[in-house]
What we know:
By secondary structure, the chain is α+β, with helices and mostly antiparallel strands. The protein has helices spanning 100-106, 123-136, 142-174, 176-188, 195-201, 206-217, 221-239, 244-251, 256-267, 271-278, and strands at 12-22, 29-30, 35-49, 52-57, 60-64, 70-86, 91-92, 95-96, 116-119. GO terms for molecular function: DNA-binding transcription factor activity; sequence-specific DNA binding. This is Helix-turn-helix transcriptional regulator.
Amino acid sequence: MGPLSPEQLVPSLHTVRYWRHKEQFLMDTDTHNTWMMFAVESGSFRYDIDGETGTAERGDLVFCPPFIPFRREIIKPLTFFVFTFTLPIAQVDGRAAADVQDAWTQEKTRSGCPSGKVTIRDVQRLASDFDYLRAVWEQEEEEAGDRKQYLLRDIWRLYGWETEAVRRFASVREDPLMERAERLIRERAHEPFSMQELAGELSLSPVQLTRRFTAAYGKTPGAYGAALRLNKARALLVETDWTLDDIARRCGYDNGFYFSRAFSSKMGMPPSRYRDANRL
């Protein structure tokens, strides 16, 4: 049973508050029975959450699990949002779970739930979420509540993408042979080659290659190469007038018929319709 992923842990908003240029917290330590997230727009503060210490500033999200003391001290006047939320989940790894608070308190090391700081690199998207939140955070109408819930989940998606990027980067650093494998797949994705040949070139069995590559990149080598072929085919459909057979040959598909079937399976529409819908 592996850690829970952010996709499994969709947050349900309880409250959101907003402060401008706050110079001091009323309490330097408190504990809540829900999850908390501080989303920093400007300024900075120190935090200590379950033994993790650090400094948070613009673009940082700081998560505190339920029932865990949250110690903090403002360094520079702080403009920030505070969210409280729950992470209910109906089924985890084939077993029932009442909620993720229980998962945290019982299995802290494998829960995968957030704790401490995550830095968001897509600061423009985060700033856009902040702009919309400032307009609705005080409103109590149902429509405003839906918007606040949507914006929390969008910020949650950013958190998920950042943690996945960090995980993959760490996995690749730990396994430089898979970095070579990724480079070879990228170089050969648009021409015929077999994963068995690639495994042999790396002195691995196909099973070892699949296991290690999936751990590093989150996809099997075959799926990774297929995604590269599909991305190139999508671009050629929109940017050229080439026939499906021409595109198939340039992207590593056997023929136009096979390409059309593979494309429709992944995209939910045939290549001709995709081309018509996406040309400018």
